[in-house]
UniProtKB/TrEMBL annotation:
Keywords: Isomerase, Membrane, Rotamase, Transmembrane, Transmembrane helix
Protein name: Parvulin-like PPIase
Pfam family, one: Rotamase_2
Segments passing through the bilayer: 12-29
Any one Gene Ontology molecular-function term assigned to this protein's record: peptidyl-prolyl cis-trans isomerase activity
UniProt KW Glycoprotein keyword: no
Native organism: Bauldia litoralis
Length: 293
Protein backbone atom coordinates (compact mmCIF):
# COMPACT_ATOMS: atom_id res chain seq x y z
CA UNK A 1 0.00 0.00 0.00
CA UNK A 2 1.36 3.41 -0.90
CA UNK A 3 2.11 6.15 1.60
CA UNK A 4 -0.78 8.24 0.26
CA UNK A 5 -3.26 5.39 0.66
CA UNK A 6 -2.14 4.81 4.24
CA UNK A 7 -2.43 8.55 4.89
CA UNK A 8 -5.99 8.73 3.56
CA UNK A 9 -6.86 5.51 5.39
CA UNK A 10 -6.46 7.25 8.75
CA UNK A 11 -9.96 7.99 10.21
CA UNK A 12 -8.96 11.42 11.46
CA UNK A 13 -7.81 12.40 7.96
CA UNK A 14 -11.06 11.12 6.47
CA UNK A 15 -13.30 13.17 8.70
CA UNK A 16 -11.09 16.25 8.44
CA UNK A 17 -11.36 16.07 4.66
CA UNK A 18 -15.11 15.55 4.92
CA UNK A 19 -15.32 18.57 7.18
CA UNK A 20 -13.38 20.72 4.73
CA UNK A 21 -15.62 19.63 1.85
CA UNK A 22 -18.80 20.36 3.80
CA UNK A 23 -17.46 23.69 4.99
CA UNK A 24 -16.54 24.70 1.45
CA UNK A 25 -19.98 23.66 0.18
CA UNK A 26 -21.79 25.62 2.85
CA UNK A 27 -19.62 28.65 2.21
CA UNK A 28 -20.58 28.59 -1.45
CA UNK A 29 -24.29 27.95 -0.83
CA UNK A 30 -24.66 30.42 2.01
CA UNK A 31 -22.31 33.00 0.50
CA UNK A 32 -21.09 33.78 4.01
CA UNK A 33 -18.92 36.88 4.25
CA UNK A 34 -15.35 36.20 5.29
CA UNK A 35 -14.01 38.70 7.77
CA UNK A 36 -10.38 39.71 7.30
CA UNK A 37 -8.09 38.56 10.09
CA UNK A 38 -7.27 42.19 10.89
CA UNK A 39 -10.89 42.68 11.98
CA UNK A 40 -11.94 42.11 15.59
CA UNK A 41 -15.01 40.20 14.41
CA UNK A 42 -14.99 36.42 14.73
CA UNK A 43 -17.68 35.06 12.44
CA UNK A 44 -18.74 31.48 13.12
CA UNK A 45 -20.47 30.81 9.82
CA UNK A 46 -23.07 28.18 9.06
CA UNK A 47 -20.43 26.35 7.11
CA UNK A 48 -18.05 26.34 10.08
CA UNK A 49 -20.81 25.05 12.38
CA UNK A 50 -21.60 22.29 9.89
CA UNK A 51 -17.91 21.40 9.82
CA UNK A 52 -17.71 21.18 13.61
CA UNK A 53 -20.89 19.10 13.74
CA UNK A 54 -19.65 16.75 11.02
CA UNK A 55 -16.30 16.25 12.74
CA UNK A 56 -18.10 15.44 16.00
CA UNK A 57 -20.41 12.99 14.22
CA UNK A 58 -17.53 11.21 12.52
CA UNK A 59 -15.70 10.88 15.83
CA UNK A 60 -18.61 9.79 18.06
CA UNK A 61 -20.86 8.18 15.42
CA UNK A 62 -23.82 10.42 16.36
CA UNK A 63 -24.84 14.05 15.91
CA UNK A 64 -23.87 16.55 18.58
CA UNK A 65 -26.54 17.71 21.00
CA UNK A 66 -27.21 21.45 21.17
CA UNK A 67 -25.15 21.74 24.36
CA UNK A 68 -22.29 19.84 22.77
CA UNK A 69 -22.47 21.98 19.62
CA UNK A 70 -22.44 25.14 21.74
CA UNK A 71 -19.34 23.82 23.53
CA UNK A 72 -17.67 23.11 20.15
CA UNK A 73 -18.43 26.65 19.01
CA UNK A 74 -17.06 28.10 22.26
CA UNK A 75 -13.90 26.02 21.83
CA UNK A 76 -13.52 27.23 18.25
CA UNK A 77 -13.92 30.86 19.32
CA UNK A 78 -11.36 30.39 22.11
CA UNK A 79 -8.93 28.83 19.64
CA UNK A 80 -9.43 31.70 17.20
CA UNK A 81 -8.95 34.33 19.92
CA UNK A 82 -5.72 32.73 21.14
CA UNK A 83 -4.53 32.23 17.57
CA UNK A 84 -5.04 35.87 16.64
CA UNK A 85 -3.57 37.21 19.87
CA UNK A 86 -0.60 34.89 19.53
CA UNK A 87 0.09 36.14 16.03
CA UNK A 88 -0.14 39.76 17.26
CA UNK A 89 2.57 38.92 19.77
CA UNK A 90 4.64 37.24 17.06
CA UNK A 91 4.48 33.85 18.75
CA UNK A 92 4.25 32.13 15.37
CA UNK A 93 7.64 33.53 14.34
CA UNK A 94 10.65 31.21 14.66
CA UNK A 95 8.40 28.55 16.17
CA UNK A 96 9.77 25.26 14.83
CA UNK A 97 6.62 23.26 15.60
CA UNK A 98 4.37 25.86 13.96
CA UNK A 99 6.62 26.09 10.90
CA UNK A 100 6.71 22.32 10.48
CA UNK A 101 2.93 22.08 10.75
CA UNK A 102 2.63 24.68 7.96
CA UNK A 103 5.16 22.72 5.91
CA UNK A 104 3.12 19.54 6.40
CA UNK A 105 -0.04 21.31 5.26
CA UNK A 106 1.70 22.68 2.18
CA UNK A 107 3.11 19.26 1.34
CA UNK A 108 -0.38 17.83 1.69
CA UNK A 109 -1.71 20.45 -0.73
CA UNK A 110 1.03 19.57 -3.21
CA UNK A 111 0.14 15.87 -3.23
CA UNK A 112 -0.65 14.74 -6.80
CA UNK A 113 -4.12 13.61 -7.73
CA UNK A 114 -5.08 10.02 -8.54
CA UNK A 115 -5.14 10.90 -12.25
CA UNK A 116 -1.56 12.15 -12.06
CA UNK A 117 -0.53 8.86 -10.47
CA UNK A 118 -2.17 6.71 -13.12
CA UNK A 119 0.51 5.17 -15.36
CA UNK A 120 0.11 5.46 -19.10
CA UNK A 121 0.46 2.48 -21.42
CA UNK A 122 3.95 1.05 -21.27
CA UNK A 123 5.14 3.04 -18.26
CA UNK A 124 5.09 0.12 -15.83
CA UNK A 125 6.86 -2.10 -18.35
CA UNK A 126 9.53 0.55 -18.82
CA UNK A 127 9.90 1.01 -15.07
CA UNK A 128 10.36 -2.74 -14.57
CA UNK A 129 12.95 -2.89 -17.36
CA UNK A 130 14.91 -0.02 -15.77
CA UNK A 131 14.77 -1.54 -12.29
CA UNK A 132 14.74 -5.25 -13.11
CA UNK A 133 17.26 -6.27 -10.44
CA UNK A 134 14.90 -5.17 -7.69
CA UNK A 135 12.16 -7.55 -8.83
CA UNK A 136 14.07 -10.71 -9.69
CA UNK A 137 12.33 -13.93 -8.68
CA UNK A 138 14.73 -15.63 -6.23
CA UNK A 139 15.74 -19.26 -6.46
CA UNK A 140 13.26 -21.64 -4.80
CA UNK A 141 13.92 -25.08 -3.39
CA UNK A 142 11.76 -27.91 -2.09
CA UNK A 143 13.59 -30.36 0.17
CA UNK A 144 13.57 -32.83 3.05
CA UNK A 145 16.08 -32.91 5.87
CA UNK A 146 17.21 -35.15 8.74
CA UNK A 147 18.73 -33.42 11.75
CA UNK A 148 21.65 -34.51 13.94
CA UNK A 149 21.98 -32.61 17.22
CA UNK A 150 25.50 -31.54 18.33
CA UNK A 151 24.09 -30.88 21.77
CA UNK A 152 23.42 -34.61 22.13
CA UNK A 153 26.15 -36.17 19.98
CA UNK A 154 29.03 -33.76 20.53
CA UNK A 155 32.10 -34.42 18.38
CA UNK A 156 30.51 -37.52 16.79
CA UNK A 157 27.72 -35.55 15.12
CA UNK A 158 29.22 -35.34 11.63
CA UNK A 159 30.28 -39.00 11.72
CA UNK A 160 26.78 -40.05 12.77
CA UNK A 161 25.33 -38.12 9.83
CA UNK A 162 27.75 -39.80 7.40
CA UNK A 163 26.83 -43.24 8.74
CA UNK A 164 23.14 -42.40 8.40
CA UNK A 165 23.67 -41.30 4.79
CA UNK A 166 25.23 -44.67 4.02
CA UNK A 167 22.30 -46.64 5.44
CA UNK A 168 19.78 -44.38 3.64
CA UNK A 169 21.49 -45.21 0.37
CA UNK A 170 21.17 -48.89 1.33
CA UNK A 171 17.40 -48.43 1.50
CA UNK A 172 16.65 -47.47 5.12
CA UNK A 173 13.81 -44.93 5.56
CA UNK A 174 15.35 -41.53 6.37
CA UNK A 175 12.40 -40.72 8.67
CA UNK A 176 13.67 -43.39 11.09
CA UNK A 177 17.02 -41.65 11.51
CA UNK A 178 18.28 -38.46 13.11
CA UNK A 179 17.36 -36.60 16.30
CA UNK A 180 14.19 -34.86 17.45
CA UNK A 181 13.91 -31.20 16.45
CA UNK A 182 11.39 -28.38 16.10
CA UNK A 183 12.76 -27.67 12.62
CA UNK A 184 10.52 -28.70 9.71
CA UNK A 185 11.35 -32.10 8.28
CA UNK A 186 10.48 -30.82 4.81
CA UNK A 187 9.75 -27.52 3.09
CA UNK A 188 7.73 -27.06 -0.10
CA UNK A 189 9.08 -24.76 -2.81
CA UNK A 190 10.42 -21.85 -0.77
CA UNK A 191 12.61 -18.87 -1.59
CA UNK A 192 16.23 -18.89 -0.49
CA UNK A 193 15.40 -15.99 1.86
CA UNK A 194 12.70 -18.05 3.58
CA UNK A 195 15.01 -21.04 3.93
CA UNK A 196 17.85 -18.89 5.25
CA UNK A 197 15.54 -17.34 7.86
CA UNK A 198 14.83 -20.84 9.21
CA UNK A 199 18.09 -22.74 8.73
CA UNK A 200 20.71 -20.05 8.16
CA UNK A 201 22.74 -18.81 5.20
CA UNK A 202 25.38 -21.59 5.27
CA UNK A 203 22.69 -24.29 5.04
CA UNK A 204 20.93 -22.46 2.18
CA UNK A 205 24.11 -22.08 0.15
CA UNK A 206 24.86 -25.79 0.56
CA UNK A 207 21.30 -26.63 -0.46
CA UNK A 208 21.71 -24.65 -3.70
CA UNK A 209 24.73 -26.82 -4.56
CA UNK A 210 23.12 -30.13 -3.54
CA UNK A 211 22.03 -32.66 -6.21
CA UNK A 212 18.33 -33.15 -6.98
CA UNK A 213 16.54 -36.39 -6.18
CA UNK A 214 19.03 -37.98 -3.80
CA UNK A 215 20.14 -37.68 -0.19
CA UNK A 216 23.40 -35.84 0.39
CA UNK A 217 25.39 -34.19 3.15
CA UNK A 218 26.35 -33.68 5.85
CA UNK A 219 25.23 -30.02 5.65
CA UNK A 220 25.72 -27.61 8.52
CA UNK A 221 23.16 -25.08 9.72
CA UNK A 222 22.77 -22.65 12.58
CA UNK A 223 21.43 -25.53 14.68
CA UNK A 224 23.62 -28.49 13.80
CA UNK A 225 24.21 -31.06 11.05
CA UNK A 226 21.74 -32.30 8.42
CA UNK A 227 21.27 -34.71 5.60
CA UNK A 228 19.19 -33.22 2.78
CA UNK A 229 17.19 -34.46 -0.18
CA UNK A 230 16.36 -31.76 -2.73
CA UNK A 231 13.05 -32.61 -4.43
CA UNK A 232 12.86 -29.60 -6.77
CA UNK A 233 14.93 -26.56 -7.54
CA UNK A 234 14.00 -23.44 -9.51
CA UNK A 235 16.77 -21.08 -10.51
CA UNK A 236 16.58 -17.34 -9.88
CA UNK A 237 15.21 -15.47 -12.89
CA UNK A 238 13.97 -12.10 -14.07
CA UNK A 239 10.32 -11.41 -13.36
CA UNK A 240 7.64 -10.66 -15.92
CA UNK A 241 5.31 -7.77 -15.14
CA UNK A 242 2.26 -9.91 -14.36
CA UNK A 243 4.16 -11.57 -11.49
CA UNK A 244 5.17 -8.35 -9.75
CA UNK A 245 2.71 -5.77 -11.06
CA UNK A 246 1.46 -4.73 -7.60
CA UNK A 247 4.97 -4.02 -6.34
CA UNK A 248 5.97 -2.29 -9.55
CA UNK A 249 2.87 -0.10 -9.54
CA UNK A 250 3.42 0.83 -5.88
CA UNK A 251 7.07 1.76 -6.45
CA UNK A 252 6.30 3.63 -9.68
CA UNK A 253 3.58 5.65 -7.94
CA UNK A 254 5.90 6.48 -5.05
CA UNK A 255 8.66 7.63 -7.39
CA UNK A 256 6.22 9.63 -9.52
CA UNK A 257 4.75 11.23 -6.41
CA UNK A 258 8.19 12.36 -5.26
CA UNK A 259 8.95 13.75 -8.72
CA UNK A 260 5.72 15.77 -8.85
CA UNK A 261 6.17 17.14 -5.33
CA UNK A 262 9.79 18.08 -6.05
CA UNK A 263 8.71 19.80 -9.29
CA UNK A 264 6.07 21.80 -7.43
CA UNK A 265 8.52 22.70 -4.69
CA UNK A 266 11.01 23.78 -7.33
CA UNK A 267 8.39 26.09 -8.84
CA UNK A 268 7.79 27.66 -5.43
CA UNK A 269 11.52 28.00 -4.80
CA UNK A 270 12.00 30.03 -8.00
CA UNK A 271 9.91 32.78 -6.39
CA UNK A 272 12.57 33.33 -3.75
CA UNK A 273 16.17 34.47 -3.67
CA UNK A 274 18.02 32.31 -1.15
CA UNK A 275 21.05 33.87 0.52
CA UNK A 276 23.17 31.73 2.83
CA UNK A 277 25.39 34.00 4.86
CA UNK A 278 28.88 32.77 5.83
CA UNK A 279 29.18 31.43 9.35
CA UNK A 280 30.34 33.92 11.93
CA UNK A 281 34.06 33.30 12.33
CA UNK A 282 34.09 34.06 16.04
CA UNK A 283 31.12 31.76 16.71
CA UNK A 284 32.70 29.06 14.56
CA UNK A 285 35.96 29.28 16.52
CA UNK A 286 34.07 28.99 19.81
CA UNK A 287 32.17 25.95 18.55
CA UNK A 288 35.41 24.36 17.37
CA UNK A 289 37.26 24.93 20.66
CA UNK A 290 37.83 21.78 22.75
CA UNK A 291 35.77 21.45 25.89
CA UNK A 292 37.55 22.17 29.17
CA UNK A 293 37.87 19.01 31.23
Amino acid sequence: MSLLRRFFGEPIIQFLIMGVVIFAGYAVLQDDPVEPETSNAIVVSAGRIAQLNEMFSRTWQRPATQDELDALIDAYVKEEVYYREGRKLGLDEDDTVFRRRLQQKMEFLMEPSAAQLAPEDGELEAYLAANADGYDIPARIAFEQVFFDPGTRGDTTAAAAEQALAVIRDGVDAAELGDRTMLPGAMPLSSTAQIASTFGVEFTEALLAAPIGEWSGPVRSTFGVHLVNVDEKQEARAAVLAEVIDNVRRDWEEERRREIIEERYGELLTQYSVVVEPADEQAASVDAAPAVQ
